[in-house]
UniProtKB/TrEMBL annotation:
Residues 11-146 form the Saccharopine dehydrogenase NADP binding domain. It comes from Cicer arietinum (Chickpea). The gene is LOC101497584. Coiled coil: none annotated. Belongs to the saccharopine dehydrogenase family. This is Probable mitochondrial saccharopine dehydrogenase-like oxidoreductase At5g39410. Residues 210-234 are annotated as: Disordered. One of its GO terms (biological process) is glycolipid biosynthetic process. It comes from the Eukaryota. GO terms for cellular component: lipid droplet; mitochondrion; plasma membrane. It holds the Pfam family Sacchrp_dh_NADP. Residues 210-221 have a biased composition (Basic residues).
């Protein structure tokens, strides 16, 4: 593209994939939409198969005729094609997973081109490797790279921040446990890419630990009032929210820790490339009100039988995911090894429409910071908040990704010039939460109570 030619606002890479087609469908709602307070002026879609992309555009546009969007050829195994994409746009929305296999070349092309990048990855090893490999270069080139801009890990990040902001001085939060509950009027069928990422996550667990050990310096840890939480029961019955729960080894906890670590280094948050004085004041006020906390995530079910089913799936993935033969079995027969929770062709439209999620945040702390410093101090205060929304993989994730893109394009001067960051530290002080609430994802205070020791 010639230097004087106007660039596309964004290019959706992998638009014909399982999740990519829903991202395109959501993005089209905001294409030249005069009814929205921010919209896209131009969108292009990219991938390996132009015929499939054209068919996807027709599907995503229904019941309206498809708009005339440019269809661009690109392949993650062809770096020149990726550099060509980046030269034609301000922002890449990457929907091509698994990201540990296909994401690195896309990030590299964006960073080298000075193009911004967001994705829907839920893979901690990929996200942290991108930070190690490309952060300094991204700062230099003015490329803002933000992974985890879908259900992984925006509800967890914003949900924790929302709970934290309810703790008004002199009260302080000590720990927040998130409980994810997937619900449906029909049967719950998960995103196969999520299942595949979990399987590959087990295979690459040692690489993640090796990556963390190889960093020249350890991440700073926030100062959190009160004692560190003890390890609880393997299967917990959280009566206050009506769920049985077990630990969920997702990206959310590690992404939140990275956000809190960055905040420890930069207590006023990340300055924008050309912030207005009003935004500087808003950003600093926001982060001064956020209180760090120990954070964990659990998957919940209303029945003990449901949580035993989830536990069994975890055992299958844990045992078989560490060998190549076992991974082949898991990925070739997902419906069998996930006890029907995942299948290769994903959920039907009816199953997507009937599904929803609730993510509860149970925060415990002290009604006075002085109590937290006492020996054998136990939390005496509890605040429960909740994030709710539609189906996680094909509805909530596209909503979140598209709203992040709209903010990035319309408020670019208020965001960091460049670097590889988590969504919380970048979008926390923006109006992302308000935008999500306007698009079907709610944030609510459930209760504030004193708890007895």
């Amino acid at each position: 593209m010639e230097p004087n030619v106007t660039k596309f606002d964004l290019i959706i890479l992998g638009a014909s994939g399982f999740t990519g087609k829903y991202v395109l469908k959501e993005a089209l709602k905001f294409l030249n939409n005069n009814q929205s307070f921010s919209s896209f002026n131009s969108i292009a879609i990219a991938g390996r198969n132009p015929t499939k992309l054209a068919q996807t555009l027709i599907w995503a546009s229904k019941p309206n005729p498809p708009p005339s969007l440019p269809i661009l050829l690109a392949d993650t195994t062809n770096p020149p094609s990726l550099r060509s994409l980046c030269s034609q746009t301000n922002l890449i929305l990457n929907c091509v997973g698994p990201f540990r296999h296909h994401g690195d070349p896309v990030v590299a092309a964006c960073v080298d081109s000075g193009c911004d990048y967001i994705d829907i990855s839920g893979e901690p090893e990929f996200m942290e490797r991108m930070e190690v490999s490309y952060h300094d270069r991204a700062v230099e080139r003015g490329s803002l790279v933000v992974s985890g801009c879908g259900f992984d890990s925006v509800p967890a990040e914003l949900g924790l921040l929302y709970n934290s902001l309810q703790w008004v001085g002199p009260s302080v939060v000590n720990r927040v446990e998130a409980y994810v509950s997937l619900e449906s009027e029909k049967r719950i069928v998960g995103n196969f890419a999520t299942y595949e990422s979990a399987v590959l996550g087990v295979a690459n667990a040692s690489k993640l630990q090796q990556l963390r050990r190889s960093r020249p310096k350890r991440r700073p840890r926030p100062m959190i009032p009160g004692p560190s939480p003890t390890k609880g029961e393997t299967i917990e019955h959280q009566k206050k929210i009506g769920l049985w729960a077990v630990m969920l080894p997702s990206a959310d906890a590690s992404v939140v820790r990275r956000t809190l670590s960055t905040l420890t280094e930069k207590p006023k948050g990340l300055p924008g490339s050309n912030e207005s004085p009003e935004m500087v004041e808003k950003r600093e006020a926001f982060w001064s009100s956020v209180k760090p906390a120990h954070f964990g995530v659990k998957i919940g079910s209303k029945s003990l039988l449901g949580i035993l089913r989830i536990t069994m799936i975890g055992i299958f993935i844990g045992l078989l995911g560490s060998t190549s033969f076992g991974r082949r079995l898991l990925l070739n027969f997902p419906s069998f090894f996930s006890l029907g929770l995942f299948r290769k062709n994903g959920p039907s439209n009816e199953e997507v429409e009937s599904a929803s999620f609730k993510m509860w945040f149970v925060g415990q702390g002290f009604n006075n910071e002085n109590l937290a410093s006492q020996v054998n101090a136990k939390p005496d205060m509890e605040i429960i908040t909740r994030v709710t929304g539609p189906e996680v993989g094909y509805v909530s994730t596209p909503i979140i990704l598209v709203q992040c893109a709209l903010i990035l394009l319309s408020q670019r001067n208020n965001l960091p010039k460049g670097g590889v960051y988590t969504p919380g530290i970048v979008f926390g002080p923006t109006d992302l939460q308000q935008r999500l609430q306007q698009n079907g994802i709610s944030f609510d205070i459930i209760s504030k109570n004193t708890i007895s020791s």
